[in-house]
Amino acid sequence: MKIKKLIFIMILQAFLIPAISFSQVWDDNFVGIDSLYNTLGAVVQIKDFYNQDDSILYIGGVFSNVNNHEAHGIMSWNMDTVKTYQIGVDWGGVLSINLYFDTLLIGGNFQSASGEPNTARLAIWNGEAWQGTSLGQPDGWIYDFTLFHDTLFICGDYSHIGSQTFNMIAAYNGEDWINVGSFGMWASALEVFNGELYAGGYWGIRKYLGGTQWETFPVKPNDFVFELKADTINTFLYVGGQFTSVAGQPSVGSAMWDGFNWHPLGNYCGATVWQQAMEIYRGDLYTGGGLIDNDGNLDMYITKWNGESWDSIGGNFSSSIYALEIFRDTLYIGGAFRTWDSVPNGGGIRSKGMVKLYMPDNGCDYLKPRINTYADTFYLNGGEVDVNLYNNNPYVDSWEWDFDDGGVSTSSTAAVEHIYTEVGEYNVQVTVTDGECVKTANKKIYIELGNEVPQFEKIDMQIFPNPTSHDFIVKTSLPNYQKVEIKIAGLNGHLKSVIPVTGETTIIPTKGWSHGVYVCNLFVEGKLVKVEKIVFE
User: Fold this and answer.
1) One digit per residue, pLDDT tens: the chain, 537 residues?
2) Is 495 helix (H, G, I), strand (E, B) or coil?
3) On the CB side of 74, how many CA atoms lie within 13 Å of its CA?
4) Are 170 and 148 in contact (CB under 8 A)?
5) Do 369-452 and 453-537 fold alike per CATH?
6) Residues 254, 288: Cα–Cα separation, whole Å
7) Strand pairing category for 25-27 and 516-524
8) Strand partners, 44
9) What top-level class would CATH report for the domain 23-358?
C-alpha cells in the first residue's frame, strides 16, 4: 500500500508541477530588506520605483527606516543589499525618481534632502551627498521626470525654480535650464509616445510641439489625468487618472489613445489610477486601481487589460496602490497598504508596502496588431483613389498585406499605400511576423463614387512649397468652408495636428516636425475627400 501511495503521489506531482510553473506567483520576500517602517507608526507609502538596467531598483515614497538605517523616502536595492543616501529627505516624501547621465534625481513634496541647502522638492545625488540645482529649489511639488531627445523634462505644481519662472514644466540639458512653455495648472505625468512628448495633468492631455508650444487634445478624459504609459510594441498610449469617460463613453480611471482615436476602456475598474500606477507587463496593461462590488464597496486589486477585456489579477490590498514597475521580469507593486493577500477574502498578510507579482510568459499575446486609416469610406476621383493604411506594430520583422482586390504586398514598413479602382466593400488584412509570432488583423473599408459627395468635382487641394523645410501652405478650392479641416498624419500615420480651414489658403506650422513624408487629409463635413503628401526636409 505504501508503494502504491508513493507512486500515486509521484504521478500527481508530475501533473501538478507544470501547472504550478505556469501560474502567477505572489511574493513579499525582499532579500536584504528585513523591515521598512515609519518611526511614528504612520503607514509606509511607496510612491515610485525606478529600474536601472535591471541591476538596481530605486524605491521612493514616505518611510523613515529600512532595517536599522535611516532612509527617509529614498533607497536602492540590488535584490541582496540596500543602499541609503545620507538620511534621505525631511518632512515629506519622494514622488518621482530618475537617472540623468547616471546621476540620481528625486522629486516630491519634501522640505529638504538630508538638510542640505536648496534641496526642497528637487534634489540631486552627487555621489556623496545631496545638492540642489544650479538655479535653486522649486517653489512647489515635483511629480514626474522623463527624457526626451537627451533632455530631462520635469513637471509638477510649481511656478519657479530658484528665481527663474517655469510654469509647471521645465527642461534641463545637463548645463542649462530651458523654458519649454507654460501649463497654467499642475502637470503630473510625462511620457514619450511614437517619438513625441506628451504631458498629462489638470487640463487633460497635451503634446509638445517644440520650443515653448504645446497642443491640448480637443477630446480628452472628462477629469484629471495622473499617469501616462506607452506600449511601444503596439504603439498605444494608456492614460490613467480620476475620470469616468472619454469621447462620451464610459472609461473609468483608464483610457487608451492609439494615435488615431480614443478607445474607452469601460467601467470595470472603479478607482483612480494614481501617478506611477500603470505598467506594461507581458504586453498587457496593468493598473493599480480597484473594483467596486455589488454593495458599492471599493476593494483594491491589480487589474489587467489584455487589449480586449479586463481581469482582476488579485492582491486584495488593504489600501491604495501607487507604484508599478517591471524589475527582472517581475511586476513590483507599491502603495499604502498594510496588508495584502493573494487569496480573495483572505485573512490579510502584513506587508512593507511592497509586493511582487510574477506572471508566466503569455506566448504571442503581447502582439496586438491593428489596421488604422483616417476614414472608412474613400471616393474615386478619375477612376481611382489612393488609400493609406497603417499597422500599429513598428518593430516586427515583416508585414504582409492583402487588399482584397487581388493585390498583395510584403512591406518593409508598417505603413502602405494602395490604389483602388472599383467601388465596393473590401476586407483589408495585414499579417505581422515577429520571430515565431504571427498575428493577423482585418479592417473593412468602402470605396464609393465621388458623386456621393456634393460638388465633389469642385473640391481641390494643393500644397506648396513641396518639399519644404519650413511652414507650408495648403490651397483649397471648395464650394464653401463650413466644417472643413486638414488632419496631418505624421510618421507611422499618427495624428500630427488638426488645422481648421477657414479660407482659400491655410498655413500649416511645422515646428517640432521630424524629417520625413507627411500626409495631408482634407475632410469636408466629416468625409475624407482629398489626400496629398508633403516632404519635410
Assistant:
1) 333 333 333 333 333 333 333 589 999 999 999 999 999 889 999 999 999 999 999 999 999 999 989 999 999 999 999 999 999 999 999 999 999 999 999 999 999 999 999 999 999 999 999 999 999 999 999 999 999 999 999 999 999 999 999 999 999 999 999 999 999 999 999 999 999 999 999 999 999 999 999 999 999 999 999 999 999 999 999 999 999 999 999 999 999 999 999 999 999 988 899 999 999 999 999 999 777 777 777 889 999 999 999 999 989 999 999 999 999 999 999 999 999 997 766 778 989 999 999 999 999 999 999 999 999 999 998 899 999 999 999 999 999 999 999 988 887 889 999 999 999 999 999 999 999 999 999 999 999 998 878 888 889 999 999 999 999 999 999 988 788 999 999 867 888 889 999 999 999 999 888 899 999 999 999 999 999 999 999
2) strand
3) 31
4) no
5) yes
6) 10
7) unpaired
8) none
9) mainly beta
**H, E, C per residue of 401-412:** EECCCCCEEEEC
- Which residue from 44, 75, 101, 83 is spatially nearest to 339, judged by alpha carbons? 44
Closest by CA position to 465, among listed 507, 519, 500 = 507
CATH topology of domain 369-452: Immunoglobulin-like (2.60.40)
pTM of the model: 0.92
Q: How far apart are the C-alpha atoms of 114 and 131, rounded to whole Å?
A: 9
Distance of CA 328 to the CA centre of its chain: 20
DSSP character at residue 468? B
Assigned CATH topology for domain 453-537: Immunoglobulin-like (2.60.40)
**Is 47:334 a contact under the CB 8 Å cutoff?**
yes
Start-to-end CA distance of the chain, whole Å, equals 83
DSSP string covering 101-142: TTEEEEEES-SEETT-TT-SSEEEE-SSSEE--SS--BSSEE
Q: Where do the structural domains in the chain lie, given as residue ranges?
A: 23-358, 369-452, 453-537
